[in-house]
Amino acid sequence: MSYHSFLLEPISCHSWNKDRTQIALCPNNHDVHIYKKDGTKWTKIHELKEHNGQVTGIDWAPESNRIVTCGTDRNAYVWSLKGEVWKPTLVILRINRAARCVSWSPKENKFAVGSGSRLISICYFEQENDWWVCKHIKKPIRSTVLSLDWHPNNVLLAAGSCDFKCRVFSAYIKEVEEKPGPTVWGSKMPFGEVLFESGPSGVSGGAGDGAGGGWVHGVCFSHSGNRLAWTSHDSTVAIAEGGKTSTISSLSSETLPLLCVSFITENSLVAAGHDCYPVLFVYDGTKGSVTFGGKLDVPKQTSQRGISARERFQNLDRRATSSETTEQGLESLHKNSISQISVLEGGKSKCSTFCTTGMDGGMVTWDVKSLESALKDLKIV
Amino acid sequence: MAKNTLSSRFRKLDIDEFDENKFVDDHDEAVDNQGPDGAEIDNLIRQGDMMTAFHIALRNPPVNTKNPAIKERALAIVLRVLTSFKSSDIEPAVKSLDRSGVDLLMKYIYRGFKKPSDNSSAILLQWHEKAFAVGGLGSIVRVLTARKTV
């Protein structure tokens, strides 16, 4: 587990290139900085300055080596590397509020942008006009779209939004692709069709009394695309399995809300959020239940020195407890909320390394094998 | 010129009500949850059977109705049960609840905090401590984010 502190400000968003030697991130301003890995050091090699507002989403297409960025200035740019310089191309999204998240499709022929205008823009390149064109998915979204994830078939798109629901849409663009075959989520997929919508809360498992749910912060399809996981602001994580019995299993956790989630195998997912450490959840397909797998973080080095009487009274005065811990700060690697998690090696089916960035301006790369050995009782199925 | 001489009647208008994009919750028509039965609870409290009174009080929470009278009545009943508990009995009572029960209990506790009476705060704080030990920060977050309040 290596922690690298890039900045003092939060990292708004990040994305890695194909061979994981370069990272593009936004240091909480209008630019995108690209850093290159030099052994253990990181050097800034590019600064992409074009946006007029904070950059809220970055995605780096691995095969075609293009970067798409979106920002609060209601624009998105597609950057291509020409020689040594990244050249932007403006994409008109036709939105009247900030863009919040962006994601290339698996085949990289289109990308989706979620925005505060309560719609998703699906953008594709039109050859005749040499221009990026966009189509909108509006119904039935009623609030800001916070997170997006594509299904491996390049057509289905999961969107989590502030109207407390997670939905699966079809983003089929007939100009750029063939009609998709049927999947577990449905077989008829015209553009904009809603194939799945989560209820206000989980149906089985956790919050059974219909507590209303919260903003859906992170969504993720599993590697096969048959499972969809999302985390929401009422501290729950839920998984739905596509199919005739679209069952939703959810777990109300005891932690603060989780902001981002990713599958690391078909049955396990890692999520992280305001608690500043990643957490493992295990999904049991046969029982349809989500269980807490463990806290993934550097184990605490407990100092064995005793605590003097004076310190005890001081703690009582300052913190209302006379407990032993003289640890002033957080015990986790990240010192502030984790806002994004990305899989580095192994894909979503057999992830071996993943990376988290957060509001403390730091980035941590986590190695699954060493986590498994370092923390006992951790089983990744 | 310290006084505003123009009309300020517009300030009494709630402009958000007229916003055509205003978010309205999906209506849930379930009307069976009318809150616990007051008479039954009274009986049990008199007999001293606190655990059963507690469980019955937490059944049928009026989360779906918009009628404030029903919610007030339910709240009063639950608070009566919570305040008649002995401190030592609180922990086993909380342990006997499941996840959603703990969330529901937290909701009632916070509603009870809103209108403190003579002794209620002290006992509610003890309830809060025990419920927090089981439910964690997540249960408090769920009190804050719940659309269907108790």
Automatic annotation (TrEMBL), chain A:
Compartments, record wording: Cytoplasm, Cytoskeleton; Nucleus
PROSITE patterns found in the cross-reference section: WD_REPEATS_2, WD_REPEATS_REGION
Sorted UniProt keywords: Actin-binding, Cytoplasm, Cytoskeleton, Nucleus, Repeat, WD repeat
Top-level taxon of origin: Eukaryota
Pfam family, one: WD40
Residues passing through the membrane, by range: none
MF terms (GO), sorted A to Z: actin filament binding
InterPro entries (alphabetical): ARPC1, WD40/YVTN_repeat-like_dom_sf, WD40_repeat_dom_sf, WD40_rpt
Role this protein plays: Component of the Arp2/3 complex, a multiprotein complex that mediates actin polymerization upon stimulation by nucleation-promoting factor (NPF). The Arp2/3 complex mediates the formation of branched actin networks in the cytoplasm, providing the force for cell motility. In addition to its role in the cytoplasmic cytoskeleton, the Arp2/3 complex also promotes actin polymerization in the nucleus, thereby regulating gene transcription and repair of damaged DNA.
Name of the protein described by the UniProt record: Actin-related protein 2/3 complex subunit
Species whose genome carries this gene: Oncorhynchus mykiss (Rainbow trout)
Automatic annotation (TrEMBL), chain B:
Domain of life, per lineage: Eukaryota
Main location per the UniProt record: cytoplasm
Subcellular location: Cytoplasm, Cytoskeleton
InterPro entries: ARPC5, ARPC5_sf
Any Gene Ontology CC annotation: Arp2/3 protein complex
Gene Ontology terms describing biological process: Arp2/3 complex-mediated actin nucleation; regulation of actin filament polymerization
Leader sequence residues: none
One family name in Pfam for this protein: P16-Arc
GO molecular function list: actin binding
Keyword hit for Iron: no
SUPFAM superfamilies: Arp2/3 complex 16 kDa subunit ARPC5
Keywords noted in UniProt: Actin-binding, Cytoplasm, Cytoskeleton
Reported function: Functions as component of the Arp2/3 complex which is involved in regulation of actin polymerization and together with an activating nucleation-promoting factor (NPF) mediates the formation of branched actin networks. Arp2/3 complex plays a critical role in the control of cell morphogenesis via the modulation of cell polarity development.
Similarity remark: Belongs to the ARPC5 family.
Name by which UniProt lists this protein: Actin-related protein 2/3 complex subunit 5
Organism of provenance: Oncorhynchus mykiss (Rainbow trout)
Phylogenetic lineage: Eukaryota, Metazoa, Chordata, Craniata, Vertebrata
